[in-house]
Amino acid sequence: METESEPYVRLTTLRRLHQVMADMNTARSLADTLQTVADGVVNGLGYELACVNLVRPDGDLVVAALAGNPAAEALITGRVGSRDAWERRLGVGERWGDLVFIPHTEGLVLDDDIPHWYTDGPAPRFEDEWHPSDCLLAPMYTPDVPGGSPGELIGVLSVDRPRNGRRPGEWGREALQMYAFQAAIAISNARLRSNMQRALVRLGREQQALRASEESFRQAFEYAPSGMAIAELGGDQHGRILRTNDALCRLLGRPASAMRRYSFSDLVHPEDIGTLLRTSAEGGRAELRLGRRDGTYVWVSLRNSVVADAADGPRFLLTHVEDIEERKRRELQLAHRASHDSLTGLPNSAELRSRLSSRLCRRPAQPDAPASLDVAYGHPAYDSSGHGFDFRPDAEHYDAYDHHVHTIAPEGERDDGTKGLAVLFCDLDGFKSINDRFGHNAGDAVLIEVARRLTRGVRDGDTVARLGGDEFVVLADGLGRADAQDLAVRLRNEIIQPIRVDGRAMRVGASFGIGWAHCGMTADEVLKSADERMYVEKRSRPKQHRRAG
Predict the structure, then answer these.
(1) What are phi and psi of 15, to 5 degrees?
(2) Cα–Cα separations (whole angstroms), residue 186 to 21, 25, 28
(3) What is the DSSP letter of 289?
(4) Residues 398-410: tens digit of each pLDDT
């Protein structure tokens, strides 16, 4: 039977309970919330001691807060009990709804790693009196998911010794159970706020780092000693320049506002457009020429990389442009020296053979074909048009010549209208006497002048090369027999004109032999043919005795 004072006590307890619940929902941090939960058990529910055991990410429970006993607080705060031990404890004792009461008669046999304390006091004299070794546990679960799984254990409230010295009755148990439920909500909210605060702090740091990175990139981009550009990647405006630094603007002599009207394909030298297109976007490298504002071109090295504007955002092409004009000029000079005669500046023997070989294709004849003079010398059979045949049914072999324009030659000694690649072999007559009488310096001056006259007497696109000594070769494509003979006459007439060296007029003659190149021959075979015709012509002429100067 309820006494007159019990309603008053219950009302007073409810008021205190509401206040401590309000306090734990307004705590500023997770640590404050946990301590407020422990304090609320002592101040609001009338227990002498309360401990909040919080589930850690690894599943074990740690003593996160304790109230009511400073000595116990110093002793066990921060200690950890295994999840298995806690599961065993929650599975023994008496079930008071969601609460678990472990009387001293069962608690004495528990031997585990859960942090605990001892409360001094006399043994109980009444049946419902609290024993110092009694234990009351209030599991804290997150709310159940509607129509789904039950709530998850987030911690356990462990309380000890009610102030009235008796085991809690029905109302006390209901109040503790209600408090544990609200505490679970408050702790979950505090964790969420704590995670959000950490996330905001982390986001702020990341944004700060991003701003620092962007500023660092901006400075590295703007003040880089070599050219830098950002261009669109993909879409209708692929390759359009979006941004350039001062170094690139200075290199090309164009303002930044004008650069944004172009892509690199608009600026590249026409001969280098293929190189640019073959350069892959990601990690691509190329050496090519870019146009300056004044119409000249500068050799540069391009290096590409792809950068993202933001996570999953648009991608851009970052292009590093390095001025290699001086290096390229030295390379071209070295290449020119390797392929040209140092005295006359004409292509040398190696370059002559290279240019001649590039016009000729050699196709070995069918291995089983009957031996002939052409086959013996490595020449294929020819059809009526002068095109070489290879009788081997090898598709891959044919592919190599699909785009090759075969070099053909006029047939017979008469001009039949066929246009071919004429090879004029020129040998100077009387040059040795100039060297003997006036020295090599005079001979060099004569060779330089002869080279100039030969170059002046041919068309653009023809090749004049010095084969060695006083021998020169002219490659002239698209000539018939009469055209080649006329060219030889004109060049001879140019050469035999007096050459003044150190105030002296010197004369040399010239003998020309005309050969014809056609596919199936080697460069040496073509030159040998022209050389032989030159000697035939020289022997057929009457001997002439001229003074050298």
Answers:
(1) -60, -45
(2) 8, 5, 11
(3) E
(4) 344 445 677 877 7
pLDDT digits (tens, 9 = 90+) for 451-469: 999 999 999 999 999 998 9
Burial class (CB in 10 A: 0-12, 13-18, 19+), 134: buried
Three-state SS string over 321-375 comes to EEECHHHHHHHHHHHHHHHECCCCCCECHHHHHHHHHHCCCCCCCCCCCCCCHHH
Tell me, what DSSP letter sits at residue 74? H
Q: Which amino acid is at 306?
A: V
Report DSSP state, residue 290: E
The tokens 């998850």 sit on which residue?
Answer: 152
Cβ atoms < 10 Å from Cβ of 189: 15
CA distance 406 to 385: 10
CA separation for the pair 221, 216 (Å, rounded)? 8
What is the spatial distance between Cα 23 and Cα 186, in angstroms, rounded to a whole number?
Answer: 10
Characterize the bridge pairing of strands 504-506 and 463-468. unpaired
Sole residue written with tokens 């598709």:
395
CA gap 510, 495 in Å, rounded: 7
Would the pLDDT of 153 be above 80?
Answer: yes
On whether the CB atoms of residues 391 and 397 are closer than 8 A, the answer is no
**What residues does 99 pair with on adjacent strands?**
96
CB proximity list for 374: less than 8 A, separation 6 or greater: 365, 380, 381, 382, 520
Question: Can you give the C-alpha Rg of the chain in angstroms?
Answer: 51
Checking 396-405 for CB contacts under 8 A at 24+ apart, the result is 397/363, 400/361, 401/361, 401/363, 404/361
pTM (2 d.p.)? 0.48
Confidence of residue 7 (pLDDT cuts 50, 70, 90): low
One-letter amino acid for residue 239 of the chain = G
Cα(33)–Cα(194) distance, integer angstroms: 11
Angle at 357 between CA 356 and CA 360, to 5 degrees: 100
- For 63, the 3-state DSSP assignment is strand
What is the DSSP annotation of 143-200?
PPPTTSPPPPEEEEEEEEEETTSB---HHHHHHHHHHHHHHHHHHHHHHHHHHHHHHH
Give residue-wise pLDDT tens across range 31-77: 888 998 999 898 888 899 999 999 999 999 999 999 988 888 888 88
- Mean pLDDT, all residues of the chain: 82
Q: Would you say residue 244 has pLDDT above 90?
A: yes
Answer yes or no: are the C-beta atoms of 470 and 447 closer than 8 Å.
yes
